[in-house]
Write a structure and sequence with these properties.
- By secondary structure, the protein is α+β, with helices and mostly antiparallel strands.
- The protein has one domain: RRM (RNA recognition motif) domain (Alpha-Beta Plaits, 2-Layer Sandwich), CATH 3.30.70.330.
- The chain contains three helices and six strands; from the N terminus they run βαββαβββα.
- Strand 4 and strand 5 (67-68) form a beta hairpin.
- It is globular, with a radius of gyration of 14 Å.
- 19% of the residues are buried.
Length: 88
């Protein structure tokens, strides 16, 4: 893994940032947690790519609050990926 920020999908709408922080802290130092309200996903940033890789391997597909988590390396926002087109 290149980065230390993870996408966490298939979250129940009642899951809190504190619950995610606690879950991911088993795999390293959690720097930031952000849940996108009403969307069922969020982001967790750990202190190193190796910690993020360890968390991804352990938690992807695991059950949390009755749902199977989808954990993957977060992609940069579209504007940073160079997608779309430019107007001149």
């Amino acid at each position: 893994m290149q980065g230390s920020k993870l996408y966490v999908g298939n979250l129940g709408y009642s899951v809190t940032e504190e619950q995610l922080r606690e879950l991911f802290s088993n795999y390293g130092e959690v720097r930031e947690v952000r849940i996108i309200l009403g969307k069922g996903f969020g982001f967790v940033e750990l202190s190193s790519p190796s910690e993020a890789k360890k968390a991804k391997e352990a938690l992807d597909g695991s059950e949390f609050e009755g749902r199977a988590l989808k954990v993957d390396e977060a992609r940069p926002p579209r504007s940073e990926r160079g997608g779309g087109y430019r107007r001149y």
